[in-house]
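User: Can you predict the 3D structure for this chain?
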Amino acid sequence: MGPRLTIDEKRKRMMEIFHDTMEPYLLKELEKIGPKQKGIVSQTVKDVVQSLVDDSLCHCEKIGTSNYYWAFPSEAAIKRKNRMRDLEREIAQMEAKQGELAKAIEEAQLGREDTGERSGLVEELAEVEALWNGQKEELRQFEECDPVLMNKRKADAVVARDAANRWTDNVFVMQGWLRDKFNMEPAQFNTYFGVPADFDNV
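Assistant: Here is the predicted structure, written as structure tokens:
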């Protein structure tokens, strides 16, 4: 018994069967040829062939009730040539993009040479930004006393109170409807629906 073949080795050997004979095969035929000629275990032939079909390296055509598989050497060469052409085109595009970016970097650095004046301005900018951030932090500490913020909170509190009272009224309406319709006492209603005894408008 020879060494176990990897999936890539099995695929390569299966392609050799197609390329050497240049004939279409039924899966049953490949399951007989694979072990004898290429040492591919018959139980794995179907998976190997299907992987080649999925990667468009092998054709599969249903003729009548049978599936025929084939691949020609010329097709593989054409696919490799097309793939190489696509990769070369992609490389050319990347090189052009790299040139554009290098040019953009060079242009962006114009006027930003590291001079004494520029270094001084950069330091001054850093100091101003630090001062600005400190003042923002200090201002944030006094937000609680901001009259605009306080007025907004008061307005929000009124809206929240009105909404709470509206829902409280809805609960009382439901309580009255159940009392009239099903003779349910308010105490029963409160027990069934988890309403506290001191439930009332805000």
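The mean pLDDT is 85. The chain has seven helices and three strands.
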